[in-house]
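User: I'm new to structure prediction. If I give you an amino acid sequence, what do you actually give back? Let's try with this one:
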Amino acid sequence: MQPSSAMQNIIAHAWEIFHFYPAPQQFNICVPCCVSEETAQALRQTPLRQLTVEMIYEWNSSARPFEQQNDEIRYLLPRLLELLAHGHCPAINEELCLKRIGAISLGSWWPEERGVLTDFSRQYIHDLLLTPTLINFESALVMFHFAGLSITVLLDEALNTPGYWAIASLAYFLYIKRPNGELRNAFISRKPDGEVITQQINAWIAQSCHSLAERAAAAIECSPSLPGGERTEYSVNLSYLINESLCALVDYQLLWTMDRSE
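Assistant: Good question. You get back a string of structure tokens that encode the predicted 3D arrangement of the chain. For your 262 residues, that looks like this:
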């Protein structure tokens, strides 16, 4: 996947900001049970720009025998973000790609360093929702939550992303993917992550309800055909769910008062 020009600029800025952090003499990985001696050596000796998806995957998936150090994350971050921007998933699932960042305190980072993460997360959501089809961006929101970022900013970005499919995807997420107003995801438990995300989303809905209603009403008036063109039972059902979700944004109380199933 070729990143957008805006995303390429963010990645270039990440390399510029974090380039002076050296490779750790010892990565926070479990050797040899989780990561082989050969891979551990390759992580230390391979130039950062040449680290493969597989190497980062093993680092990401390994048990952590020590307290996570900031500089290890900052060293790897440009390459990790670059891989994500190109559509790679260096973890068992998208939700877990940035979870190691959540093990450290971003408060100790320089503002410009934190800004790189924020800019990347916003652009990631923006570019994802520009895809001309229904997008499930729940996984991306959970991924950035695990990284320690507030998803309120990302919901703002989703709301401000132009196009029918952006607001349709947002509506589908808020209405269909959140039965009874609660986010359900295989990688988060109800407590504490599920509660934190649910509280953030519900507070954001209450604050943004008028803008949501305006965009949803406009989308209902100009609903396009589903991608693919062929009218199947699946496409008809999906079209119905999208329209139902958009209507729920117009009457935002429906977003948490009804018992729904996909």
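You can read the tokens as a compact description of the fold. Here is one thing that stands out. Residues 190-221 form the longest helix (32 residues).
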